[in-house]
Each structure stands twice: as structure tokens, then as C-alpha cells.
Amino acid sequence: NLTLREPRFSIGMQNFDRERNAVIISHANAMGSEPYKAMAFFYLMRGVDVLLVDQRGYGKSSGGPSDQKCKLDLDTAFQYLRDVEKIPESHMMVQGHCLGSVAAVDLAARRQNIHLILDRPVADIKKRMIRYLPAARSITEWLHINYLNYNNLENLPKVKGHILCLYSTSDETVPFDEIRELVDALPNHPKQLQRLVPIQEVGHVKSWTRDAVATVEMEIFLKKIIKGRDYESSNTN
């Protein structure tokens, strides 16, 4: 079963406001939704409703995770906002942290009015496995094809919504060369806003809300996309 957490988790079970924007948060591997409360509070205080998702195998959700199941879980969250809460696609954002970025990029690539926030994302798990386990190249390629299709480089160019990418200057898990690969893969769509934001001294796991520059950059990004406003001048700012 997939557990969808309602917005304003500290207040109780309230409906989404279809006039507001909403963000789906896709958590990192082995974390669940609990560590993202600070991020959720940041969004709520700025007029953005939040859907925290415990993907299957994490938190209160049963089952076991895989790349396809994680993508399906996030698409289920998207359909809940669209079909049940009646949130327009143009009012939706999806944030993905580390491996959670894979499902987020996949969703934004297929649902082309959704805006994307990448939080210390991975580029291509296959390349990483081969880099660190060269002796097991054939095994890692087989795993990638059959079970671990975590490749943001393939899906990122298909994203049509605005994109913000947060990367840590002290990341012990995702090196900057992977971020550079993702930057090179960014699409070149007319009127698309793209921001690359460094986070200082938070490593790979701690919330980006601890960094003042990151929070200011996020506020600027949100102001430009809230309620589907016209983006014609956004690329010049």
C-alpha cells in the first residue's frame, strides 16, 4: 500500500486548495518522508501545499521498492492531486532528493506542465556502479537493464517545466562531476527557467532549508512559477 500524507501535516487532515500551488516530495533512498518536514514547512509558509509520499517499502508503506515501483508511486501521487484534489498540472511541482530525483524527473518528463526541483540528484547509477565496481561491469549492466534503470540523463532533456537544481558543495555521495553531467543534459526549451543553486555545509542528507542562500533562491524560483503566471520575461532575470 502507498501512504499519501495530507498537506499541513501538523494541523490534520485538510483538503488541498486548488487555487494554490502544490509540490510532491520524492524522498531519497532509505529515508521515507519524515526527514522532509522542514522542507514541507518552508513550502507551506510560502503558500504551496505539500504532498509527502512514503514510497512502497518506506515509512508506513508496505511492499518493496524498485525504480519502476517508485515511478509508479509518484505518478499515483500526481493523479491524486489532479483527479481528486483538482489541482491543475500547471500549479504542480515535484521535488526529488538523490535517488528520489529519478522518479521526479520521470514524472516531470511525462507530465509536461509540471515544474521540477532537483535536490542533490544522481545522474546515472549505471555509470557510477561501473566506475566504482569495474570488475563487475557485466553484472552491473545486467542489474541496470533489469532492475536499476536510474538514469536522469535520459529523461531530463524531455522536461518542459521550469527546473531548479540544488547541489551541495560538501556532498560525500554525489560528486560535482555528476551535477555537471546533469547541467549539460538540461533541455533548451523556449521560456524555460533554469537555476543551479549551491548549498553550503549541508552534505548530502541535511535539509537545504539550513542554507540561507538556497532558501532565497528557492523563494525567487517559487515566485516566478506560482499560479502559472506568464514566463516570457523569466529567462532575462
Give keywords.
237 residues; 16% strand; disordered N terminus; 8 helices; single chain
Model description:
By secondary structure, this protein is α/β, with parallel strands linked by helices. The chain has eight helices and seven strands. It has helices at residues 37-44, 67-84, 100-110, 125-132, 137-146, 152-155, 176-185, 212-225; strands at residues 3-5, 21-26, 48-54, 92-97, 115-119, 163-168, 194-199. It has a seven-stranded mixed β-sheet with strand order 1-3-2-4-5-6-7, with helices on both faces. Strand 4 (92-97), helix 3 (100-110) and strand 5 form a beta-alpha-beta unit. Helix 2 crosses helix 3 and helix 4 (125-132) runs antiparallel to helix 5. It starts with a strand and ends in a 12-residue tail after the last helix.
> What sort of overall outline do the alpha carbons produce when their principal axes are compared?
globular
Largest sheet, described in full? Answer: 7 strands, mixed
User: How many β-strands, per DSSP?
Assistant: 7
Please mark out the parts with pLDDT under 50 across 5 or more consecutive residues, or reply none.
1-14, 139-148, 228-237
The tally of helices reads 8
Question: How far apart are the termini?
Answer: 44 Å
Look at the helices and sheets and give the structural class. alpha/beta
Strand order within the widest beta sheet: 1-3-2-4-5-6-7
| Chain-averaged pLDDT | 76
Strand fraction band? 15-25%
Which value, in Å, is the CA radius of gyration?
17 Å
Helix content: 25-40%
Order of helices and strands: EEHEHEHEHHHEHEH
